[in-house]
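Q: what does this look like with beta-L-arabinofuranose bound?
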Amino acid sequence: MKKLFAAAAFAATTASALAVNPIVTHKYSADPNAFVWNDRLYVVCSHDLDGQKGFEMNDYVLLSTDDLVNWTDHGDVFTGGKDVKWCWNLYAPGAAVKDGKVYLYYPNSGGPIGVAVADRPEGPYVDPLGKHLIGREMPGCDSCWVFDPAAFVDDDGKAYLYFGGNGDTMARAVRLNDDMTSAQFPGVMMKASKDGKEATAMPFFFEASYMHKHNGKYYFSYSANFPDRGASIDYAIGDSPLGPFEWKGAILPNWADNSWNNNHHSIVDFRGKTYILYHSRLLSNRQGHNNVFERSVCIDELKYNDDGTIVKVVPTQEGPKQLKPLDPFAANRSVTICQDEKVKVVMADVKGKSTSVVRASADGAWVRYAGFAFKSAPRSVKALVRAKGGARLEVRKGAVDGLVAATLDIGDTKGAFAEVSAKVKGIGAETCDLYFVFTGAAEGVEFASYSFAR
Ligand code: FUB
């Protein structure tokens, strides 16, 4: 009996300590560009396709979080050929928030770069120019690759766009005008001194430009080349957004799970701490694919030394600590997920509104929600679901094979979303993770939201 109890307790602890990197496990995501909107952290990412054999991406995925552990998948928010007519092959995006609007900068693969505007991170995004904003033909923009745009808005409101790739003389920047949709030319070449020598180029620069500010200093970071630096994320510090800069080495050396893969990052302050988001092959490796084109976004904390240099980041599978618990009694979206298996997130019409929902179509498919704070014991749980042919949804505590706290029987909902509910047993006033496990879901269940009641 003692042994059984110990095993259960162990299962519960390991369950909550399970990896939260990568931040999304039901799809591949890359090139994370993070920004804060209404005190929530958003990340717009390239959307690597399952099994892709090159960079075939055609849309951007939007993820967001309030606690750094459970991430909302808002679905694809910007699609080449649809939201923008002249651009199909979407490589790394850059986003910026200014005066209550979100500006999205996007390259058509290796260039040129366009801009789209929205009133909120989820879009819809409108391409106001109908053509590119930055091209190689523009003065001072003669980079080999006019891509990987990163927008930076300084404290004085002045904005800049960084871009370029494929060589240490290829990093470029332009000033953006106040409208954020036009730029001032000529562009300038980004340079940094190294070992006290005069700055003639950006040492080892390859791609993935990024700019952030800390304590009045400007940090230009980028993915360095493969032969010299193994695609590590390097950085240089300066006193102004356009330099001069001094090269400081690696922020994030490439790690074993991402060896021989490219990398792309962004750095963001959120609720008093700084985080770096980057991609890696971690998920593809776990699945045994080891596909360099199946990348996944990860997050870790970034710290500074007293002299302003950055403490090298050691990538983790655990990621940062959860900032706040989930409220089980609130109306929770099914797509705010810590981890999952055998599910997809798809768009569905839920009560007249197109929204992202979880779709399970395999037996044993599950979704993990981490860190609920039950202030009192729940008596029931309800979920909004749509199913063909019926299925069962078990709510399990602490682990995928943990205690069954509730079983929701889902009948055929005849094409519409319908509410199902069940009694809850075995959850007290406590903090725990919950796993929603689907059985008999072969014909497909869509799951939109849930909440507990006392
Ligand atoms: O995702 C396609 C390309 O790979 C990006 O534009 C580069 O930064 C690299 O991450």
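The radius of gyration is 23 Å. Residues 30-31, 46, 55, 91-92, 147-148, 207-208, 262, 264 surround beta-L-arabinofuranose (CB under 6 Å).
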